[in-house]
Design brief:
With 282 residues, the chain is of the alpha+beta class. Helices cover 16% and strands 37% of the residues. Among the domains are: 64 residues, SH3 Domains (SH3 type barrels); 113 residues, Immunoglobulin-like (Sandwich). A hairpin with a 7-residue loop joins strand 5 and strand 6.
Length: 282
Amino acid sequence: MRSNYFRAVSAGTVILLAMLACNAVNIPGGAGQQTSPAATQAVVFTSTPTLAELLPTDTATQELTATVTLTLEPSLTPTEEVALGVVNRVTTCRTGPGSAYDKVATYQPNTSLQIVGRDLGGGYVYVQNPDKPDEACWMLLTSLTTSADVTPLPAFTPLASPTLAPDFTVTFKNYDTCKGNVFTRFIIVNTGSVQFRSAYVKVTNLKNGEVTEQSVNAFDLTVGCVVAQNIAPLTPGKTGYLQSDLFQKNPKGQKMSAVFQLCTEQGLKGSCVTRTLTFTGK
């Protein structure tokens, strides 16, 4: 009888322990609870990546940098005025400043030309050929009536002349007086291809042998003792004047001899040309 009782108690104990074990599995937070991978993913919080993190470093920097467009301010430098010239007489335009150069064109009066430069001496200007815009040539400034001062224009050095040919003509003009003494005046025309910058004048009275001589660096026109017009240098094609020094005795009506030497540089230097003239003036 006692044996059967112990068996029943043992069996009940086993069943009770088994039930407790099963309940432990189902109780939240119990020692036997296991978390599945799906549950882990559901409770893990992740941050959203930025655009800079998704892109390579260089690309992100380029994409996020704002593009700035700069608007340039108008230039404060004034536009250089174009010098225009109107031909005032029939004029030949050449490849260089002088008659020794080849002819490019001949312009009639009232032809309008654009002046693009000048020579170093100031007697010639470089003009654009209106018939051939890509071509330019040289002509005398005195042949143009200009709309503006040509001094600010670029000074060009022309091509070397085929032949340097300084030349001039001289004629007796008249006698004049200064401080009571008489002197002779002459007209000089530069007929060569280069300018003259100085001259020597020697005038001899062939009757009494009186001689006057002087050197100058200009070809000014004088009236009495006053300079009426400054002319320096004497450029090709231009007219200038030379005077003798004062005579002690009045030479009017007597036979005179004059020697002229014109040079391309001041101080009677450079290329020089000499001419003589015999005259009788009244």
